[in-house]
Amino acid sequence: MAVNGMYVVIQVVLKEKFLGTGSGNLTELENAINSQAALGYRLHTITTAASGSKGFGGGDRVQATMVFERIV
């Protein structure tokens, strides 16, 4: 990803765990935040949207949209 501007927008989709409750992949969200912090950006805004999915192994989905601001 080329990063040249003052802001970066990233979307991460978190899936419901196959068994039990809660997200099984919060590390993806953590990795996205940490990678932008390493590039000199801080989290400015985060929004989430939930959607359901039916079928075997479907589970709920949460889409996190994050806006990062360059630290100057």
Oligomer: single chain
Percent in helix = 10-25%
Shape: elongated
* Order of strands, widest sheet: 1-3-2
Distance between the termini: 20 Å
Order of helices and strands: EHEE
Overall residue-averaged pLDDT value:
81
β-strand percent reads 35-45%
Largest sheet: 3 strands, antiparallel
Given the structure, what is the number of helices? 1
Query: Mind telling me the C-alpha Rg?
Result: 14 Å
What does this structure look like?
This protein has 72 residues and is an alpha+beta fold. 18% of the residues lie in helices and 42% in strands. It is built from 1 helix and 3 strands; from the N terminus they run βαββ.
Chain-wise SSE layout:
Layout: E1 7-15, H1 26-38, E2 41-51, E3 61-70
Antiparallel strand pairs: 1-3, 2-3
Summed up:
The protein has 72 residues and is α+β, with helices and mostly antiparallel strands.
Fill in the keyword field for this structure.
72 residues, alpha+beta, 3 strands, 42% strand
